Amino acid sequence: MAVFGCSAFAPAGLSTDYGTPEWQQEISQGYIPFKRLTLEDFKIDDKAHPEVAMYTLGFIHYSYRTQVVQHGRWFTASVTEWQVRSGLDRSQTTRKSWFQDTAKAMSHEQGHLNLNEIYGRLLARRGPKTFPVGQGESPQAALQTLAAKIAKIIDWYWEQNRSMQAQYDEDTDGGLDFLMQEKWDRAISARMKNVGLSEP
């Protein structure tokens, strides 16, 4: 699973300087940089996500700077800087108190987080010039049009991520089909290498 969010700014690409104010704010709200999952990452909550014993939620947050230029009576807004922060939403990552077989389940849950990070890296690869411009009769209108166009692009990444996460669960039976889990582990590792992502 993954959650996308937007804030007002960032330098281009993937943000891995965890000492920045942006990252410090994320961390203070329970958004943790991509990592190897441990049992401590899963808070016990017997009511959350009743359909599963363990639940991992990743996040992908993006932010950008813009430039607005006037052309006669019209204004155009374009992205000048782009940043993505991604990782684990620890506040929504849970396990049931009665569930004991956590060691075996951890590999499956790591797969969910790895898939999320792959899409975060793909989104981070986008350069500012790959985004469409917004137009309007005022600077605010141009910025609103740009934001709507960016939101459509983010929706596409979200849908791809959501679909892949669902297919992963279906194929592996939530990690219970060990042969399919091994197959997916190999496929996820290959995808990670393709986006320059190392195992945490």
Based on the model shown, name its key terms:
4 helices, 3-stranded mixed beta sheet, 6-stranded mixed beta sheet, disordered N terminus, alpha/beta, 200 residues
Give the overall shape, derived from the CA principal axes. Answer: elongated
Instruction: Summarize the amount of helix as a percent range.
Output: 40-55%
Alpha plus pi helix count: 4
Rg is 19 Å
* Strand runs, count: 9
Termini gap: 18 Å
Q: Could you give the order of the helices and strands? A: EEHEEEEEEHEHH
In terms of quaternary structure, the protein is single chain
What does it look like?
Strands 1, 2, 3, 6, 7 and 9 form a six-stranded mixed sheet that branches. This protein starts with a strand and ends in a 6-residue tail after the last helix. The N terminus is likely disordered. The protein is of the alpha/beta class. It has one domain.
